[in-house]
Amino acid sequence: MAETKNNVVVEVFDKEEIAVSLAEYVAKISNKFTKERGAFTVTLSGGSLITHLRKLLEAPYFDTLEWSKWHVFWLDERVVPKTHDDSNYKLAYDGFLSKVPIPPGNVYAINDTLSAEGAADDYETRIRHLVKNNVIASSSNGFPKFDLQLLGMGPDGHVASLFPGHSLVNEDKKWVAFIKDSPKPPPERITLTFPVINSSAYAVLVVTGAGKADAVHSALRGSETSEKLPVALVSPEDELKWFLDKAAASKL
Ligand SMILES: O=C1O[C@H](COP(=O)(O)O)[C@@H](O)[C@H](O)[C@H]1O
């Protein structure tokens, strides 16, 4: 059953159903933007998110989605070579991107030959260029407006590489930032910032497992006065949809 408040929808599924419903939702949004704008800009997280995209590789989506109009970005990346097992690019490529006909030129990997600082600057510059060329839409607040952000959440309530208690959570100018002291290894990462995440049109949060139930409870039922986890700050312009399994929703 879905719970809807303002522009936030929370839906709880049997674990296996998540991939089915997520594929349906992503396809709906992809179709909307490819029709309206002739392009669909989507950001990927690392971690468990990628396996939840698996139903997009099957009928009816594989043959009907306009893959040539997809433009794929990363919410965050670890500062490691693209061939490294910690690389979010490698995870997405092996599990999803290598299996769909998205033009390689529409896959915007973070440069793995640069330092954390250099890679963050380079990614922001490339995103600015794509906004100028209308590949990525622009929000009225001046930040880029991605069509859809696909977020996971860590057990501590982090999203992208924005961790609880870290000053990067409050970054309000940069589009892309770097972190060298990530509490979750590897320590060096680059990440989209909250103004960018929250200027997107749509965002989904895919969260599974009992280990994440406390953070889910804090985000969705926490008091107004308690300090918010990063996940509780996700607030896109049009709609945020939570895809929870029963274990992750067990404390709601
Ligand atoms: O380190 C990261 O963790 C989060 C959550 O991962 P999960 O495996 O618990 O789903 C992920 O969303 C982020 O992209 C990644 O860099």
UniProtKB/TrEMBL annotation:
Domain Glucosamine/galactosamine-6-phosphate isomerase: start-end pairs: 14-241
Domain of life, per lineage: Eukaryota
Enzyme class: hydrolase
TM region positions: none
Reactions mediated catalytically: 6-phospho-D-glucono-1,5-lactone + H2O = 6-phospho-D-gluconate + H(+)
GO terms for MF: 6-phosphogluconolactonase activity
InterPro entries noted in UniProt: 6-phosphogluconolactonase_DevB (IPR005900), 6PGL (IPR039104), Glc/Gal-6P_isomerase (IPR006148), NagB/RpiA_transferase-like (IPR037171)
Signal sequence residues: none
Keyword Hydrolase: yes
Key words, A-Z: Hydrolase
EC number: 3.1.1.31
Keyword Magnesium: no
One GO cellular component term noted in the UniProt record for this chain: cytoplasm
Pathway stated in the Swiss-Prot or TrEMBL entry: Carbohydrate degradation; pentose phosphate pathway; D-ribulose 5-phosphate from D-glucose 6-phosphate (oxidative stage): step 2/3
Gene Ontology BP terms: carbohydrate metabolic process; pentose-phosphate shunt
Family: Belongs to the glucosamine/galactosamine-6-phosphate isomerase family. 6-phosphogluconolactonase subfamily.
NCBIfam families, per database record: pgl
Descriptive protein name: Probable 6-phosphogluconolactonase
